[in-house]
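Re: your question about Xylose transport system permease protein XylH

S., sorry for the slow reply, the queue was backed up all week. Below is exactly what I fed in.
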Amino acid sequence: MRGYLREFGRKLRSGELGSLPVVVGLIVIGAVFQWKDDAFLSPKNISDLSILIVGTGLIAVGIVFVLVLGEIDLSVGSLSGLSAAIVAVLSVREGVPEGLAVLIALATGAALGALHGFFFAKIGVPAFVVTLAGLLAWEGLKQQVLGTTGTIGLDEDGLIADLTGHYFTRIAAAYGAAGIVVAAFLAAQFLDARRRRAAGIPYRPMAEILVRTAVLAALLFTAAWRLNEYMGLPLALVIFAVVLVVLDFVLRRTSYGRKVFAVGGNVEAARRAGVNVDLVRISVFALSGLMAASGGLIIASRITSASQTAGTGTLLMEAIAAAVIGGTSLFGGRGSVWSALLGMLVIGSIASGMALLGIAPSVQNMITGGVLLAAVVIDSVSRRTQRSAGRA
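Result:
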């Protein structure tokens, strides 16, 4: 234990904070709101929060990839609204099956994202300008697609509505999902430690792996218990979890993910190492467009409609804030897909707690802005400390 404490102190001194600030923030936020209103951690509120974070969280996942690349995507809000409009028009007005309409909307989001990447990578237009143009253009296209009606209601018993309206009500579903995640985590940690030991590099001892697994199991099984106290495991949460796991594997465990980090860390070094920088950039923006479309469908599912206001308001800022608050660096080359989850938990918890206390949304925006500023300050100080310690 003394060795772990020394290592923890060394990481703090060298600026390697990881997800510690956001985890501490979540604990403080949860404790304060539960103290003010004990309904904050009630089964219904936890279930509602788990669905609330999914739509914007999916958009934030795409933003994480773009930020790791060292760029920004301002078009994700408009793309999310456009995807909802496409599904509504195709399925309601044109009679296209909802499943096919969903695929068309997702493909459109990916194609338009790739278009942003093409102008950025091949033509040399700054990503900020390209995606700002996309924000305006796709917002106009959304209004054109919806037409004079303005709002189109979706089938409340259809596929889109089920994305956020369906629950796995059997008790075994939530507990089984928690058990699968814990078992997979334990296996992954064990295999990683064995591989690192065989390579003769530092690895986590079995005792630490078991402690980490026990903490994760306690959190997940407690969440499963609370969800089962209400209506069970939400389908939307399952979708979000699967996307996080898959894209985390892509970013951390594949050559493609290493290329994304390489380009974000140093473009010229990546190019000299043989990385196809243009292809990586185009693919990242395509992924961002795909995730924006996915998030737009989840948001449309919650209100079972697509309207002129879809994708507007604070959606873009919340998605970017979630990625940054969760620990992804604005300076490129550092981040994790799980940042989207942690950041959305912070933003969603603030919104949920303030709604319970009857605090105005304007105050919520000010507090969220303050949290975002704090996250950027911590990131900046951390990078400066790492450079001073020779670890940047």
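The beta strands are 151-153, 167-168, 233-234, 305-307. The mean pLDDT is 88.

Happy to talk it through on Thursday.
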